[in-house]
Design brief:
The protein has 659 residues and is an alpha+beta fold. It contains 20 helices and 25 strands. The strands form five sheets. It has an eight-stranded antiparallel sheet. A five-stranded mixed sheet has the order 1-2-3-5-4, covered by helices on one side. A hairpin with a 7-residue loop joins β1 and β2 (22-24). One of its GO terms (molecular function) is FAD binding. Keywords: FAD, Flavoprotein, Oxidoreductase. Pfam families: ALO, FAD_binding_4.
Length: 659
């Protein structure tokens, strides 16, 4: 295959600092188009003692990406995305090239497309692929396998160090290779990565939702395992690719098990296919409604926006008695009634291979609802902060629009010009929602009484509007796919679409934050039991309304990889970043997990929320045998600390450079 190079140039002004490099004054970003221009930017920063950072796709925690220092050189590599196929079977990829599907560039320009054209593949991949190759690699990201690792296919790296010198390192030849590959941009700006890929492959697998107390579950989630039921640790060792989504909320208590393997000749025979006439059956993250995954994501987003923001919304009620009564009703119904119902819509428990049953027909109570129609609009919150805009440029990530803003409107109210109504039929608040919630109907008389005393009724029907460009990013469901049993689905797909199982999740509609803790695999049973006890005792304050992801990663030799020299189980705690964006509440929620699991010597994922205080540098230094060597090499490669922001100085305990 010839060198793949597409002209991605966008007309921009030139930088007032480095006149040969493109610059956008609105975002304060520099856009180099070559390694030489990256060198020029770093040399200018070195001469003027300025900080330098690369924003990538904006997928990492914002503070881990940007420098907010005055006159800092913040760089986007979206004009630096060339993929070269080399004669020795390797691929050299410029660091700004996006990995695969759902990227902010055409699929044909991504790294995985180039691999697939030559029947090549990386061995494993994380849940999404819109990130840039450089950022995904240097932040230590990983898929969910103990048999394969994305970084196993990387054989070389070139980066521009803090003196503007291009340095190149090869696996097995240069000891620095293991130091610089996962270095969070603190050794230099990654210029290119060289891959020795695998042959392309397809995967086949299933996803099944098990109740925690299901005796027929084939995995012993909390015990040591038996001859016919492996422990969770054993299951992760035996399974090529897997991840678990744990919904621990009272009344829900379930784990969704996604597992897959590379397809064999027997698998193709069973499906009546060959590799040449392979027809994929795609994994679906969300239920298909009206032939698409779109409506379910919109409803999920709406629910989490409302569930996170209801105290603020209720405080808008002027009548203090009504406000107090509505608050009480929500307290009584949300945890035991509403939340389990919603979880069951998106993660129904598998009870057998019988086909799904039709929903029951329900009577409509009189007097609670009016025939008024309301419009729910999920608009964009772009914000006005320039650095937020900088982090979002070129990004399909969740910060691209700051997440959705909820608006409740009357039918005659004007909506945003770029919004589209996505419900082909109205949502009936009673028949489609409230009547399906166990025990909800017992609270309706009280609600009816409160409203009728004030001459009020609930609007019964709702339509939903969503920005049109958000809808364009979402993928439709497979209308012709065979119907799976409730709580279970089977799938088979290509490596580049099947392994990144979360690509169809909209980062706008589901703006999720994470803290991820990597723990030695042999501690899996103890960790699972610790979490179960924590959830049972702590209630909703411990579980939150979202899920927790459990998966594994293969040991490696990379100095600051959280999987350095040990197979790990990973606990990935989700937080829905709602319209109120309460950073203090987020960190308080995560603090519980950091304190709970510190006894298991967790190493945190560098791209996600990091623990603070006594779980900072001193704690981490004890867990990374090469910690001091890493910091010493970092200091030699970046003597002026051009790449060290306050965030990374605090996270790694890098001393201030007073020279």
């Amino acid at each position: 295959m010839p060198n793949h190079e597409v002209d991605m140039t966008v007309a921009r002004a030139f930088s007032p600092q480095v006149p040969s490099v493109q610059f956008d004054p609105q975002t304060c970003l520099h856009y180099p188009t070559s390694e030489e221009e990256i060198v020029q930017l770093v040399q200018y920063a070195s001469s003027n003692n300025l900080q330098v950072r690369v924003i990538g796709s904006g997928h990492s925690v914002r503070e881990a990406i940007l420098s907010t220092a005055s006159n800092a050189i913040n760089i986007s590599l979206e004009q630096y995305r060339k993929v070269t196929s080399n004669s020795d079977g390797t691929f050299t990829v410029q660091a700004g090239c996006c990995l695969g599907l759902d990227a902010p560039e055409p699929w044909e320009n991504t790294f995985f497309y180039q691999l697939q054209q030559l029947a090549q593949a990386v061995p494993d991949m994380g849940g999404v692929t819109h990130q840039a190759v450089g950022g995904f690699t240097t932040m230590g990201c990983s898929g969910g396998s103990l048999q394969y690792a994305y970084t196993d296919s990387i054989v070389g790296i070139s980066l521009v160090d803090g003196q503007g010198v291009v340095r190149s390192y090869s696996r097995g030849k240069d000891p620095e290779f293991e130091a610089v590959l996962v270095s969070m941009g603190l050794m230099g700006i990654t210029s290119t990565l060289t891959f020795k890929p695998n042959d392309a492959f397809n995967i086949i697998g299933s996803e099944t939702c098990y109740a925690l107390n299901d005796v027929n579950c084939p995995i012993d989630f909390f015990g040591p395992g038996t001859p016919d039921k492996p422990s969770l640790e054993q299951f992760m060792r035996q399974t090529e690719y897997t991840r678990l989504m744990w919904w621990p909320q009272k009344g829900a208590e379930r784990i969704v098990v996604w597992k897959a393997q590379r397809m064999t000749s027997e698998d193709y025979t069973t499906l009546g296919m060959t590799p040449e006439n392979f027809q994929p059956k795609q994994y679906l993250e969300f239920p298909v409604v009206l032939g698409s995954q779109i409506p379910a994501q919109i409803v999920a987003s709406l629910f989490y926006q409302l569930s996170a923001g209801w105290p603020t919304l209720v405080n808008l009620i002027q009548d203090p008695l009504l406000r107090a009564e509505i608050t009480l009703l929500i307290d009584l119904t949300y945890g035991p009634c509403i939340l389990p119902f919603v979880i069951d819509q998106f993660a129904p428990v598998y009870t057998g291979d019988s086909p799904p049953t039709e929903a029951p027909q329900l009577e409509i109570p009189q007097g609670v609802f009016s025939d008024e129609v309301r419009i729910v609009e999920l608009g964009k919150n772009t914000g006005g902060e320039s650095m937020r805009g900088a982090a979002a440029q070129g990004s399909a990530g969740r910060r691209a629009a700051g997440g959705p803003v909820l608006r409740l409107l009357r039918p005659d109210a004007p909506t945003s010009a770029d919004s589209i109504r996505v419900t082909s039929v109205a949502i009936d608040l009673w028949k489609d929602v409230l009547a399906r919630m166990p025990n909800a109907s017992t609270h309706l008389p009280k609600l009816q009484s409160l409203l009728s005393e004030r001459g009020l009724k609930l609007p019964r029907y709702y339509h939903i509007h969503v920005p049109s460009d958000v809808l364009e990013e979402l993928q439709p469901g497979n209308r012709t796919a065979p119907q799976d049993a409730k709580g279970k689905q089977q799938f088979w797909d290509s490596w580049y679409r099947g392994l990144p199982m979360d690509n169809d999740v909209s980062d706008f509609l589901m703006p999720t934050e994470f803290t991820e803790l990597w723990i030695p695999l042999e501690k899996t049973q103890a960790v699972m039991n610790k979490l179960r006890d924590f959830y049972e005792q702590g209630g909703l304050g411990a579980t939150g309304s979202y899920s927790c992801e459990i998966y594994a990663a293969k040991a490696d030799e990379l100095w600051l990889s959280p999987a350095y020299k040990q197979d790990v189980v990973r606990v990935d705690v989700f937080w829905f970043h709602d319209l109120f964006r309460d950073e203090a509440a987020l960190k308080a929620f995560y603090q519980q997990y950091w304190e709970l699991l510190r006894e298991y010597d967790f190493r945190p994922h560098w791209a996600k929320y990091l623990p603070e205080g006594d779980l900072g540098p001193a704690y981490l230094a004890r867990l990374y045998p090469q910690w001091n060597q890493f910091l010493a090499l970092r200091a030699r490669m970046d003597p002026k600390q051009l790449f060290v922001t306050d965030y990374w100085r605090e996270a790694l305990g890098i001393p201030q450079n007073n020279s």
